[in-house]
Please model this.
Amino acid sequence: MSDLDFFFKPKSIAVLGASSKPGKIGYEVLKNIIDAGYEHEIYPINISAEEILGKKTFKSILDVPNNVDLAVYALPAKYAPQTVLECGKKQVKGIVIISGGFKELKGEGIELERRTLENARQNNIRIIGPNCVGILSPKGKFDTFFQPRYAMMRPKPGNISVLTQSGTFGLSILEWLAEEDLGVAKFVSYGNKADVDEIDMLKYLENDPETEIIALYVEGLKYGRQFAELAKKISKTKPIIMLKAGRTAKGARAAHSHTGSIAGNDDVFFGAMKQSGVIVVPEIDEMLDIIKLLVLQPRPKGNRVAMVTNGVGPCVIAVDEIEMTRYLSLAELKEESIDKLKSFLPDYCVFSNPLDLTGSAQASWYGHSLEIIKADENVDIIMPFFVFQDAPLSESIEELHEIMKKINDKEKTLVCIATGGEFTETQVKRLRENQIPSVFPAKRAIEALNKVIWYSMYLQKSEE
Amino acid sequence: MSDLDFFFKPKSIAVLGASSKPGKIGYEVLKNIIDAGYEHEIYPINISAEEILGKKTFKSILDVPNNVDLAVYALPAKYAPQTVLECGKKQVKGIVIISGGFKELKGEGIELERRTLENARQNNIRIIGPNCVGILSPKGKFDTFFQPRYAMMRPKPGNISVLTQSGTFGLSILEWLAEEDLGVAKFVSYGNKADVDEIDMLKYLENDPETEIIALYVEGLKYGRQFAELAKKISKTKPIIMLKAGRTAKGARAAHSHTGSIAGNDDVFFGAMKQSGVIVVPEIDEMLDIIKLLVLQPRPKGNRVAMVTNGVGPCVIAVDEIEMTRYLSLAELKEESIDKLKSFLPDYCVFSNPLDLTGSAQASWYGHSLEIIKADENVDIIMPFFVFQDAPLSESIEELHEIMKKINDKEKTLVCIATGGEFTETQVKRLRENQIPSVFPAKRAIEALNKVIWYSMYLQKSEE
Model:
């Protein structure tokens, strides 16, 4: 039941409702499958065209001479029940229904979705959707999106799997992952989730060797208790990060018109998620920050943060923010660390946490200081703030990158804070190339760390 | 007393401690003044060099043959009291002391700062600093920064003035303003603020015709009550946005080591700020979002938000977020608006707020819908969400920009939400060129709007 490999590594794909008109969903889906470099047969199904995008078309899926593993549905909703029957005759294993016009519209749409599902079940076909953007499978070299590649970047293959009820949410997270050069294992946007849902996908991802981190956008869960039990098992080895929409009465109503979901009681839901070790976040930016930390850095072994800076203002705000979190705390540097720092730094530096190297700081000052702080047993998380704009630092920038590469030995969690224009962005990218994450403003790093530490503590407790 | 024009439009500048070594603060400051295109005489003061960066140097400021309006101090702290006396003889009006090593170091530093100030007062010299990055005056065509121009962008002239105790905070906000193509009237980073402080600057900016919006970063206020009274007067015509650091005990301690400031009781302080109409924010991103809204858009006439989208997921989260704010509410579209929308949109659209045009939406669908929503008396704030990646929209993108230009007639507040990679960023920039702000994620727009509405309500009440 939970072997859904045919969705991600299909041996052939048919596009039902392939179109020859750019801008039409049936055209864009076909074009994207071709352009992604899908390595097996693609069959466009269209009643009138002979050929689309250089591919021979077929009037019906029944006319296709070979087996079809996966079908992508881009026709109007009303043809769905009948088309599913035809797919059944063709022994199609899965259908991704991109089209809307089903349960989310209420009225007839509900019946249409029910009949479509019934026909699929009778024919042993699994369905993703309807009302979704479907699948991205970087290893399978295809996606079912109608977003042209010039308008939307795709991430490389990697270890993050994303499950989402909202296609738009999915696109946002995928483009961000692509920009951050982070890779995706499996992506599913299931919209109304008539058939394949979180439960199916979690079961599948639990045993998927490619997947190490699971990110979910949820509007409503049909089987809350089952989900919680499954999540509890999986979160022990694969962190699950969830963004839950529909937390207010009006938000729940909006979710209902969106995907026909019914959001439950929030307090009960969030309580259950916490007990299952699910990291719940309120917005997409926090989800992304947490993913970045989990992929690039070791999980912190404790909650004590040490800051080093050449411009202390934003650190003062960060101190406030650390103090206001539930789980983080400011590290108290050991006296011997302070003594060592004093032995080589000028006396106008401020020897506390944050350690203020002042605007005169050169790369080497960071180098020595970070070595000492890294060796300090009172420190779990190292958070350097960089004002790359300050001349002494910008003039020794090459040295700084060499230093940071050495500091980042994955013994302790390292997160940098930096902000600025082009020059700063270049440095942030170079840090990233060495697997060092940067976040701005500090609040974002701190909130993400706070959740990650909560998760580590959860794992520790559940081991006891 | 409050005429501080000589700081921003000096008729000549001396750099005390000008250096011929790149990377040294005394070199970078001089280079930046020259490179900014400062239009009057510049005098580098250096005991050994003959010439630096093509400018004749002088051993002492007393050797300069002409008047000196403004001096920038980049020497070690210990020379400050004596140098100020020399500036006095030369009838210098103001000194910007960039160097650290004063009160923030405690011990001798306190006495050094006291003596420096005493000498300045006796000689009728105003001081900005010490321990700061000083001044940016886009109209005066100079800055006193030691951040090279290749490493830090400067904003154009404009209507925003920025006062900050933290230089780093200042640099961050300036580069962000530059990236967003927003302009600055006066910028002052005063660090330890031995002399010129918020009170002086507020008095000055109150009557500065260039300044329409004031942004402040504050670690501690010496004259809280006086500040509150002044802010109350000014905020009636010029919005004041404040970021306050040192809100926790440890944060206050960090602020004290940073600039020697003493942060007071938070509740009392924030209460006073609210009564003075000051918009208080917790982090720099919110400050920036509010500035963007205030500069580019009319202030909302009410609190009712209408959303239009071609991908509703992020809107569902936004509904939750609106519901959780104190001042915003979801607009209830009038029945006649809904009827008009239904007359031209396909029936699979979702006719509520958010109005879901679905992934099939073309530019024209947005055009018609936004016209109707703009005319709806139940709507104060229009918030379109764009999934630019969706083919029907990306294929009609030119038309969309024409439409948005027309919609943005400054009758109602317009804020767009969009996220994505390069293609989306290009569209966001094009919207911005037409004075339309975009923010992501929606939470940021909503939090900024919430504060702006609070401010509008404050003004309304104080008029009654």
Q: What stands out?
A: The longest strand of chain B covers residues 157-164. Residues 153-296 of chain B form a domain with the Rossmann fold fold (CATH 3.40.50.261). The two ends of chain B are 33 Å apart (CA to CA).
